[in-house]
C-alpha cells in the first residue's frame, strides 16, 4: 500500500537516524539499488519496533565479522507485512456468537496447515451431527 506494490528501500544511515530515505538522499548514496523500481522510504512504517531493533543488532554483529556492513550507505530492503491476524472468537464447538455459524481452519485462526485443517473439519462436522 505504501509503495504501490513495490519494495521499499532505506539507507542504513537514515534507518539509524530514524528518518525516511528520500529520492535525493538515495541518489547521493554511493551504492546503487539492485532493485531499480525500489521506492525510497522508512522501514519503520512496515516493521514493528522489535523487528527494527533486531535488524540493527544483526547489522552491528555482522559488522564485527565483515567490517563495513553497518555503513551508512548500506541499503535495506523491506516489504509491507502484517504481524497480526484477526481471530474469530469461537466456543469449543467452533460456533461463533452468531447462532449456527461456525468458523474453522484458517478462518478461525486455529490451524496452520492442511493436516490441522482436516482434523478441525472433522471436529466441526461431528459437532454439527451432534446437534441434529
Quickly list its features.
mainly alpha; elongated; 3 strands; 3-stranded mixed beta sheet; 4 helices
Describe the structure concisely for a colleague.
With 132 residues, the chain is mainly alpha-helical. The chain is 36% helix and 8% strand.
Radius of gyration: 23 Å
Shape: elongated
Please state the structural category.
mainly alpha
Instruction: Give the helix level as a range of percent.
Output: 25-40%
The low-confidence parts are: none
Number of strands: 3
Gap from first CA to last CA: 46 Å
Sheet with the most strands, sense and barrel status: 3 strands, mixed
- Identify the strand order in the major beta sheet: 2-1-3
Order of helices and strands: EHHEHEH
Mean pLDDT: 83
Strand content: 5-15%
Number of helices: 4
Fold and architecture overview:
This protein is mainly alpha-helical. Helix content is 36%, strand content 8%. A three-stranded mixed beta sheet has the order 2-1-3. The longest helix has 18 residues, at 114-131. The termini are far apart. The model has no long low-confidence stretch (mean pLDDT 83).
